[in-house]
Write a structure and sequence with these properties.
single chain, 257 residues, alpha/beta, Rossmann fold, Helicase, Ruva Protein, domain 3, seven-stranded mixed β-sheet, two-stranded antiparallel sheet, binds S-adenosylmethionine
Length: 257
């Protein structure tokens, strides 16, 4: 239809498998619900989502060269589809008026983790977040304590949400083919978010500064009395950061700040 060459710098790997697009659009009942789609691209997933009769669909796309494809779809669904050409990294999500919105996206790989971390601040707005990411990112976000991929992002994300890997997707399903495998994950917001984001984030940066070191070495700049508080709470400072549970991090952040 239009001459368009996918751009690497925008992580443009378009989904071409129609069965898979249909499967994603059927993961939830979107009828009469609001959807936010990040990076609609040429609108392949957008069209499948629109077939599910959502109340509205807001799509945020950075590449304005994709306008002709998206305007075409918009003409078919003028009341429902709204497209904003903007960088999803700088978009102000507090502007979203809906009480609860589904976020659905096949994310550009290079910014997927940054976007997910950004959305944590607005987690209460989301009914759930269903995103395609690089498989390794999915492994990291869903990693359990004392496993290979468990780290700062696993703790941050799982403090805010329950993370579930839904299924893996191989490179053949995209054009152009990415070099990595992908996974669809779902983040379901937790209802009890009783913590201070900045405090826990700062603590995690300190604790995971050197993954292979024991906690007591990473915490060597904090005062003796604070260290004592942690020991008294039952946390073993001889463990490495990947062996400390999410609940223990939460407790430590409340003790220290
Ligand atoms: N949803 C389409 C699909 O499944 O075929 C495209 C997915 S492609 C992996 C990622 C999309 O995100 C591209 O359309 C790309 O232009 C867009 N994108 C890249 N960086 C972005 C950003 N910072 N903000 C919004 N969209 C972005």
């Amino acid at each position: 239809m239009y001459n368009f060459y996918p751009k690497k710098r925008f992580g443009q790997n378009f989904l071409k498998n129609k069965d898979l697009l249909k499967k994603i659009s059927e993961l939830k009942n979107f009828e009469n619900k609001s959807i936010l789609e990040i990076g609609p691209g040429k609108g392949a997933l957008t069209e499948y989502l629109l077939k599910k009769k959502p109340k509205k669909l807001l799509a945020i796309e950075k590449d304005e060269e994709l306008k002709p494809f998206l305007v075409n779809i918009q003409n078919k669904y003028p009341e429902i589809l709204k497209i904003i050409f903007q960088d999803a990294l700088t978009y102000d999500y507090s502007k979203i008026e809906d009480k609860k919105i589904f976020l659905v996206a096949n994310l550009p790989y290079h910014i997927a983790t940054t976007l997910v971390i950004k959305w944590l601040r607005y987690i209460k707005k989301f009914e759930s977040i269903i995103v395609m990411v690089q498989r390794e990112v999915a492994d990291r976000l869903s990693a359990k304590v004392s496993t290979k991929f468990y780290g700062r992002t696993s703790v941050l994300v799982q403090l805010h949400s329950n993370v579930k890997k839904i299924f893996d997707v191989s490179p053949e399903n995209f054009h152009p083919k990415p070099k990595v495998d992908s996974s669809i994950i779902e983040l379901t917001p937790k209802s009890n978010l009783n913590f201070n984001y900045e405090n826990i984030d700062e603590l995690l940066k300190i604790c995971f500064a050197q993954r292979r070191k024991k906690l007591k070495n990473n915490l060597n700049k904090i005062s003796h009395s604070d260290l004592q508080k942690i020991i008294n709470s039952g946390v073993d400072l001889n463990l490495r950061p990947q062996n400390i549970s999410i609940d223990s991090y939460l407790m430590m952040s409340k003790l220290l700040f």
